[in-house]
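Bumping with the actual sequence this time:
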Amino acid sequence: MVQSHWLRQENLLGGGWEVHFEAGWLTQECSGEQPHRRVDRKHCPQRENGRGRSGTAEGGRESAFPAPGLQGCHKELQPGPEAHQGQGPAGHALSEPGSLWPENAGSPGCLKLEKSASNPRPMPWKDRNSSGAEAAQCQESFVQAASDASRAIDINSSDIKALYRRCQALEHLGKLDQAFKDVQRCATLEPRNQNFQETLRRLNTSIQEKLRVQFSTDSRVQKMFEILLDENSEADKREKAANNLIVLGREEAGAEKIFQNNGVALLLQLLDTKKPELVLAAVRTLSGMCSGHRARATVILHAVRIDRICSLMAVENEEMSLAVCNLLQAIIDSLSGDDKQEHRGKEEALVLDTKKDLKQITSHLLDMLVSKKVSGQGRDQALNLLNKNVPRKDLAIHDNSRTIYVVDNGLRKILKVVGQVPDLPSCLPLTDNTRMLASILINKLYDDLRCDPERDHFRKICEEYITGKFDPQDMDKNLNAIQTVSGILQGPFDLGNQLLGLKGVMEMMVALCGSEREMDQLVAVEALIHASTKLSRATFIITNGVSLLKQIYKTTKNEKIKIRTLVGLCKLGSAGGTDYGLRQFAEGSTEKLAKQCRKWLCNTAIDTRTRRWAVEGLAYLTLDADVKDDFVQDVPALQAMFELAKTSDKTILYSVATTLVNCTNSYDVKEVIPELVQLAKFSKQHVPEEHPKDKKDFIDMRVKRLLKAGVISALACMVKADSAILTDQTKELLARVFLALCDNPKDRGTIVAQGGGKALIPLALEGTDVGKVKAAHALAKIAAVSNPDIAFPGERVYEVVRPLVSLLDTQRDGLQNYEALLGLTNLSGRSDKLRQKIFKERALPDIENYMFENHDQLRQAATECMCNMVLNKEVQERFLADGNDRLKLVVLLCGEDDDKVQNAAAGALAMLTAAHKKLCLKMTQVTTQWLEILQRLCLHDQLSVQHRGLVIAYNLLAADAELAKKLVESELLEILTVVGKQEPDEKKAEVVQAARECLIKCMDYGFIKPVS
């Protein structure tokens, strides 16, 4: 017998069944003990009645769904005598109008919808859709089947047949989750039906397997690449795949899977597409894969090639350039830093030397600096990478070979960038930050040199480059030479001063000032501004160049030159610094200059680069107290400066920071010793004079005005600048400003609300030593009075601990020690995690040290901090250890006359004795005065101290019967009785209750009896 179609259902309907559809036969076979039956359709009684199968279940409820195994027609066929004419299994009616049954026409095994001749009335929509769904399933049109079933369900949401048919159709369509919901609904309607339960189990298994495959890293990686490399894939899918790939590349397991699944080659294909979003995704994924893994970084560097990486970084797109810069940084870190992978034994011998690769990267970055094909953004990123990776991070490291290599092979290239004049046709593509970044690089390289011969070599290269540019026939070359000197003066100033002394340099500057070309005047004035930083040079220029600058200022109509000339005059006018007696110009002249600077600063019609010079002018002029007082009252000018500080031009950061330092008087002021002042006057030496407006009241007023104008948001924005232009010196200035702003406790809430707490953390962790101390002190001031959860939200609070602990150093001044202890006290009261962090930062010895201090406030702050710290188990273990006097110190501090110290020490002792019985016994051994001190605490005038004393007494009574007996025999029992008999009011309730609990404990021991 040839079967045209068959399906198998096992163990669902009482045994294993096979259903065969043949051309003229419907065959039912039992795989169990049931007899084999064969039905001739021509003589089928149901067929003769013209009725198909559908109907009601035994309970009268409409049921009958097809068995899940019969995926073609899904007919339930049961063997045995109970299947009688006109009925299906278990009493299901097999003769209803509009039934479905296999027809012998067309394709075998198909179902046909027919209407009974004896009953021509149309079927209801519910039955028609339900039956239509069944027919569509047999024709394997599962979409249509699902649609028909859905229409039936819309009419009757409890139509169990339609639900089950839709479940089967959806299963075939691969929509397992939707199929599962339908069969779940069926199982809810008929919970005892084994078919539904079995289908639920089967679908659940299929869904779990599908999810396992779908979320396995290998398949995810493969699928992402398929979507990304398929040109016909949707934009949304492609974007999601790219983002997922980036996230996967940042995880160690994901990066390894991408690498093992030929990911590097596929990422190279993405780079070849030249589509920005795909190239960006590939670069970011590669960056994640390189992080902390030397082997992968080496393979990726050689696979992608350094020249290709540099060409990608050279593009005009800022986002792309930054992403490639991060990739190169990740490669450099992996090649030069510690490898996350541990190499042991023979593997260690196979680890390649990375110096050659690092040298190749440095060489390509230097070549980028002078290439016309490189965009301004690309040049900036190349300079950033050189700034970060060439100079030594710690001068204690002896090896400065990278700096020597760059000086020998790249210093001329860096000087070429510094000497670029933007208005010249031959100028390289630049941004506002490029020349400043190059100046900073020169400064870092010069500082990284170890000896005089190396510095002499550096200077000679600079001299040869500058003198080689001087050419009487070519004015553009002269401009480049002066611009180079100007750039060096912004970097290593000592070197710049030496270059100013070269024959013809100063003369060329003055000559260019008198040139008719505006470009020449622009470069010369800028150079004069930078040259006049040193008082001796400024005096020379005041003598020789002020009249010339004034002439240019009066005659030129170019705003750019005018503002620079003004800044030159500002700088020369402030050459005396804060010294009121060393004013260079006549009274009122500096105020006029400052007024003009503020006017230009507020003029938004002028370009940002030019307005930057107005801030530069104010940075010099605000050394004068009259100028800074006027400036902080000019709110529009202040806000204009803050807005400029938030722009992409980072060259303004130092000027803004300097201006704010001047306005807040946060620069270092030398202590004036009266005797030395008298001596100086006697010897007719100049004595610096303080301006009347530099007194404390004026400074406080200026700080309040700055806070009101929104200085904190500007500072927070400046701190976030991810650029080499945010130098350690600039960070120090910002830290000084923050410290001055935090001085008044009433202002600290405003600072926290505007994000000052978060902004201070990076300043306290990185920068100059002075800057880190100032920032840590500002953090201590905030931490001492603010809720740490608000001031330092999330995990940031743990970063605050180290800067505060650093202030406990005995070399710091007393105020810093005191406020650091207050801050740590506040933090240690928040959570045990913070106490653990403080303990791990080794703060405990310092805190103990200050508990010995003679200074009352320091001792009080340290004792309060210890009171919170003793809640930590590891701190308690330190007190439990033998051979130390920690507990003795706390007991003796309980006997001090200072109420606050007593309160804190008694609190610490109460918690220690409550935590460990051993400490109760130890307390009686550390000093003979312990009982006297305890009695004093229990009789103290301050209720908080008295309460702590009574808690200590209770802990001692509860610890040991012998110790309790000793206490009862002393005067302590009388004290407890007197306190316990008091009438408890609101204030004394806790104290009286504690005394009564002590008496109850004595009664429990049987030492005393209640009066009946």
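The tokens above came from a reply further down the thread. The domain at 216-341 is CATH 1.25.10.10 (Leucine-rich Repeat Variant).
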